[in-house]
Amino acid sequence: MEPEELRLLDAFAYLMMLTGCVCFALLLRLSSPYGRYASQWPGPRVPARVAWALQELPALAWPLLECTCASPQRLDRLPNRVLLAMYLVHYVHRSLIFPFLIRGGKPMPLVTCVLAFLFCTCNGYLQTRYLSWYAVYAEDWVTQPCFLAGGLFEYITAANYLGEVVEWCGFALASCSLQSGAFALFTLTVLLPRAKQHHRWYLEKFEDYPKSRKILIPFLY
Prior knowledge:
The chain is an all-alpha fold. It has a domain at 31-138. Helices cover 63% and strands 2% of the residues. The protein is built from 6 helices and 2 strands. A two-stranded antiparallel sheet has the order 1-2. It is a multi-pass membrane protein. Residues 150-221 form the 3-oxo-5-alpha-steroid 4-dehydrogenase C-terminal domain.
């Protein structure tokens, strides 16, 4: 019989997939409420550095708390440790390094910051608890990784988004779980409309912007 929390984690994953699809539909019609499009949204603002650091922090805090305040039964296995470390390294950068690299970032609408904080809280719990307590992998699960390299911005507008989509799709393939798959799908459904919006913005603002450059997938889209 499955543990009750595992069923809850599965339910969270399905809910995340559904939410991602809803976000995808909405963001095809509305501008993304942060960055260069933030001025189109009403309400109070949060300084960019503060917003990015705070909203990403729960995703970093969950694995740290799990490792220090509990005795996760699956983290004695190498694949689980490697996968959780991959997740942790990403959010160390997103919450502790990236915010301080921002130069002149536009203030973020408070509602965006709050929604991102809630997402990182839920997703941090989802990924951390599954990898720490329930995910079972063979000891040889971890194999030689492959990495994309090259000047992708020559071929697509949103190379940074493609990198994040590939990152979390790779994480989902490595984890081979419903929870990580939900995270990858949510990432794609949120970033794809924003990439399309970026592409349209560049075409409108710069007459010499390469018309052959694709949006997110080189040579295809």
